[in-house]
Amino acid sequence: MEDEPLSVAAVSSVGQNAVAIAFESPPDFAARPGQFVKLVAEVDGERESRFYTISSSDVADTFEVTVEIDPDGALGPILAELDAGDTMTISGPYGNAYYEDEPRAVILAGGPGVGPAVGIARRALADGNEAAIVYRDDDPIHEDALDELAAEGITVHVLDADDDMGEATTDVLTHDEGEQVFVYGFADFLDAATTAIDAAGGDPDGAKVENFG
């Protein structure tokens, strides 16, 4: 879809300056956890847009994106004020680093990468597959969702922003056939994650990676 106005179904807080926004899915909308959409708004006469990854398990009736709000940003204050019934202009989905029914998904997430991590783990559970998450952030969000996933049997490691990822990554990698590693985050996190995968005996080149900039 391209620049389509979609209605907000619900908005919920998922942490300090972070919300999960659920939109009504348009007919024939098809997207996978790990893909992302572009949210667009007009601010002071200028078109502003940002990309956000899907954090819901599916998009059948609604789909959810996780948004970290920058109170001083151009788009953040607008998203922070959204309520059910409001509309946003949206395009997408985009991206090729997404869940494709792999028997086991291992997700290494930095900062806003927790959005796709939650979406993929939720979908894997719904499909009867396995998942594990290593999430590194100085101010974690989606903690309720992560607790729920852990209670359902998903292995979840939440690390501080400066923590070494080696031990946690070694713990979640099984090296079994059908295991797929996903990496979501900013460039410095991607470097740390791929180093941890390599040190744990995994294949960094085989990971599905999305660089947030």
UniProtKB/TrEMBL annotation:
It comes from Halorientalis regularis. Residues 1-100 form the FAD-binding FR-type domain. Keywords: Dioxygenase, Oxidoreductase. One of its GO terms (molecular function) is dioxygenase activity. This is 3-phenylpropionate/trans-cinnamate dioxygenase ferredoxin reductase subunit. The lineage of its organism: Archaea, Methanobacteriati, Methanobacteriota, Stenosarchaea group, Halobacteria. InterPro entries: Cbr1-like_FAD-bd_dom, FAD-bd_FR_type, FNR_nucleotide-bd, MRET, Riboflavin_synthase-like_b-brl.
